[in-house]
Amino acid sequence: MTTETPPLSEDDALLAKLGYKQELSRSWSGFSNFAISFSIISILAGCFTTFGQAWSNGGPIAITWGWPVISVFILIIGFTMSELVSAYPTSGGIYWWASKLGGPAAGFYTGWLNLIGLIAVTASVAYGAANFVDIFFGLLSKSWAAHYSLQRVFIEFVVILVLAALANIFSSHLLAVVNNISVWWHVAGATLIIVVLIVVPDHHQSVGWVLSERINNSGYDGGANSGVMFWFLVLPLGFLLTQYTITGFDASAHLSEETEAASDAAAKGIWRSILYSAIGGWILLLALLFAVKDQQLVTDGINVGLYGSDVILNQALGKSWHTIVIGISAAGQLFCTTACLTSASRMTFAFSRDGAIPGSKIWSKVSATRVPANAVMFVAVIAGLITLPALIEVNFGTADAPIILPTAFYAVVSVAVIGLYLAFAIPIFLRWKHGDKFEAGAWNNGKKYKWMNLVAVIEIVVICIYFILPLYPSGWPGNAGFAWKFVNYAPLLTGGVILAVTIWWFASARKWFTGPKHTIDEAVIKAFDD
Questions:
Q1: Residue 367 · residue 170 · CB < 8 Å
Q2: What is residue 444's three-state secondary structure?
Q3: Closest CA to 102 of 491, 503, 423, 523
Q4: What is the Cα–Cα distance from 232 to 243, expressed in whole angstroms?
Q5: Which secondary structure element, helix H or strand E, spans residue 242, and what is its range?
Q6: Count of CB atoms within 10 A of residue 407's CB?
Q7: How many C-beta neighbours within 10 Å does residue 269 have?
Q8: Which residues on neighbouring strands pair with residue 259, listed in sequence order?
Q9: pTM of this prediction?
Q10: Strand, coil or helix: 505
Q11: Nearest-angstrom CA–CA distance, 327 and 330
Q12: What is the DSSP letter of 201?
């Protein structure tokens, strides 16, 4: 007796056409796909943890005007990537597109940039979450607050990575549920925080101050808040707040093999997560700015290692509301960490499936619950290792008048932005180069790709140049106060990876890496082509 093989679903058929059999559990809805990118962007994370970067580099105008302007550019990047994921909805996402459009070398470099960017995002979000969890405990206990140390925060960081890994290993369906909850937590939590910042404070800044105040607390140009250096060096460094917060939306692509109707749902997941986060984040940041009570105290707090957002909350709110708001933000950051680890592990799984990572056979294994558990652990361990410099206290002042700045944190943030956005730029440019020969999917930009893809690539190149620069004057070799602990190690880590990949490519990889490997019979692929 013979049994007929059930027909492939539309998703499985498209995946088979791209060369892969369905291995991961396709249990994610379109909303869940949107939810993971929205959770990774996390306005409750980036807006709170990197607020000080924008405050010190431009001040309110870096937020009031910088956020919406940079958000428009990021949305354009998102539209170009939505078109790509609609055509090629695979877990490999970014590097798969580059391989398809530009060949093995393009895919190899793109994959490694994307991987280091995703791991750095996971590390930075987990470390930011550890700090806000520590602040939350400190608000509950004076004894806890009095015994703060970098070592304690690092331990909390490791614990958060372990818990996020366990959540990821347990079940793919559980993760979808967690991310769905995360969306509503972010929406409800951000709304509550905005209302609290409007209603509770007894003082609000003027509209004029919020729209026009300029601050230069970077150390550049003697603190001048006008002139060429302010507008073309200091202020752009403040844009790291926006560029870092609204990133990681490629998660919708990496989870496309687990999403129903992926060619449409994953495309919408990318651009919608950017748009809604941009709007919600801007309103949240404006609420923080209006709640500023003493501008100088915020600057002074940042200079001794405090988070600017936390200083504002302490000024504007009583202890109870302050604790609640920090708790909401910390929980949002924990959701974000879990989602970041999910995205990075799927990229690791896909890249390993094609043999591009040492130990690929280990990282490409899928557990009994159809989850890449080994890839999850790989990402968690590497994220912990690249954050070790955060244990080094960086004091720009003296023992009596310390100026403690989170140089390592901002360096990891820069690595995340540079790695991810450079990885995005390669397939976006290649798609533009292909022109009308590109076989578009269900969701596409039509003829608008001709200018959108070029604008996206130019913006990425410009921001990457800025974010490899030293964040402070003392990070420049040759400066009188130069020391290695002040250096922005983003270009060293990112450049080191690129150098290692280049050596590996020419010495070995080009002989055996042919791009994405098919896990389905070639005859099946040819049948779809016919």
A1: no
A2: coil
A3: 423
A4: 17
A5: helix 240-245
A6: 24
A7: 31
A8: 28
A9: 0.88
A10: helix
A11: 5
A12: -
Three-point CA angle 417, 342, 495, nearest 5°:
30
Three-state helix/strand/coil letters over 157-169: HHHHHHHHHHHHH
Q: CA-CA distance, 138 to 326, in Å (whole number)?
A: 11
Q: Are 418 and 468 in contact (CB under 8 A)?
A: yes
Q: Do residues 481 and 474 lie in contact, with contact meaning Cβ atoms separated by under 8 Å?
A: yes
Instruction: Give the amino acid at 113.
Output: L
Most confident of 94-103, 242-251, 324-333: 324-333
Residue 327 in tokens: 């708790």
Length of the chain equals: 530
> What torsion do the CA atoms of 468, 472, 478, 481 make, to the nearest 10 degrees?
-150
**What's the token pair of residue 216?**
């230069």
Residues 6+ apart with CB under 8 A from 282: 67, 68, 71
Instruction: Please state, in angstroms and rounded to a whole number, the distance separating the CA atoms of residues 51 and 74.
Output: 18
pLDDT digits (tens, 9 = 90+) for 157-204: 999 999 999 988 886 677 778 888 888 999 999 999 999 999 999 999
- The single-letter DSSP state of residue 96 is H
Nearest CA-CA partner of 494 in 415, 378, 401 = 415
Q: Which residues pair with 404 in a beta bridge?
A: 395
What is the rounded CA–CA span in Å between residue 178 and residue 189?
Answer: 16
Please say whether the dihedral angle defined by the alpha carbons of residues 135, 140, 146 and 152, taken in this order, is positive or negative. Answer: negative
Query: 215 in helix, strand or coil?
Result: strand
The tokens for 163 are 């818990």
User: How many CA atoms are closer than 13 Å to the CA of 380, on its beta-carbon side?
Assistant: 24
Q: Cα(302)–Cα(96) distance, rounded to whole angstroms? A: 41
- Locate tokens 């015994």: which residue? 147
CB 487 within 8 A of CB 509: no
Supply the pLDDT for residue 250.
87
Q: How far apart are CA 203 and CA 103, in angstroms?
A: 59
226-234: long-range contacts (C-beta < 8 A, 24 or more apart)?
A: 230/58, 233/469, 234/57, 234/58
Tally Cβ neighbours within 10 Å of residue 379. 31
Q: What spatial distance separates the first Cα and last Cα of the chain, rounded to whole Å?
A: 31
Token output for 495: 């450049």
Residues 6+ apart with CB under 8 A from 148: 134, 138
